[in-house]
Amino acid sequence: MKNSDQPYLSNPLLRLSYSLIAPLYDTVIERPMRVARMKSLGFLPTEEKMRVLVSGVGTGLDLPMLPALHHYTALDFNPAMLARAKPRCKDLKVDFVLGDSMSLPFPDAQFDHIILHLIVAVVPEPERCLSEAARVLKHGGTIILFDKFLHPHKRAPMRRLLNVISRRFATRMDVVFEEVLRAAPELEVLHNEPILANGWFRGIVLRK
Q1: Distance CA 49, CA 148 (A)
Q2: pTM above 0.70, yes or no
Q3: What is the CATH number of the domain that holds 94?
Q4: Looking at the domain assignment, is residue 1 inside a domain?
């Protein structure tokens, strides 16, 4: 398999770091992000059973907050993260898939809704991550996105400086959502609000 087919393979340090981080990830991330996650997931419709992709599921912190009526596919590129996510599915119907959010192993228009929590600003190519989500989303479906983004034209010199290091082993700090959105012109913004850390983290809902 070529790296172009699975883009995360081009960053072995990122793969290794998340294997090492997996046991500590929940301790660092769970409590500070809990309320924001719940608020974001409140945009997932519950009127009827749907097919929902959780792309970049990580250790599965979203899973206990999800409504049980849907059929979920939970994807992550890291086996250690998936191993921690599986016990969290409880009463949910979940298919766990080892795969790349930048090169999804699914045909076009497979999912009614897609959850992208803390993944767009982590992957090396955020535009590719969003365009792949748009590709596998059905017409009329939504993408529920929660992540950290710089505002357009914001200088943020410290974040950009730290990004030189952090992007190699943890996450990017220089991603501008409005620039990423250009990669998926079929998506329209339904909702976009500050949700955490003085607006650095945003809750966004997109529709195809």
Answers
A1: 30
A2: yes
A3: 3.40.50.150
A4: no
How far from the centroid of its chain's Cα atoms is residue 124's Cα? Answer: 13
Tokens 């250790």 identify what position?
Answer: 59
Q: At 172, phi and psi to the nearest 5? A: -90, 150
- Cα distance between residue 38 and residue 9, in whole Å: 31
Per the structure, the count of domains in the chain is: 1
Q: Hey, what amino acid is at 98?
A: L
Most confident segment among 33-37, 111-115, 159-163:
111-115
Residue carrying the six token digits 């600003």: 121
Residue 149 pLDDT more than 80?
Answer: yes
Please, is 169 exposed, middle or buried when counting C-beta atoms within 10 Å of its C-beta (0-12, 13-18, 19+)? middle
H helix intervals, the chain? 12-41, 79-85, 126-136, 157-169, 177-181
Distance, CA of 6 to CA of 95 (rounded, Å):
20
Q: Residue 92 domain-assigned?
A: yes
Residue 172's pLDDT band (boundaries 50, 70, 90)? Answer: low
- The answer to whether residue 2 is domain-embedded is no
3-state secondary structure of 3: coil
| Residue whose C-alpha is closest to residue 75's, from 36, 115, 45 | 115
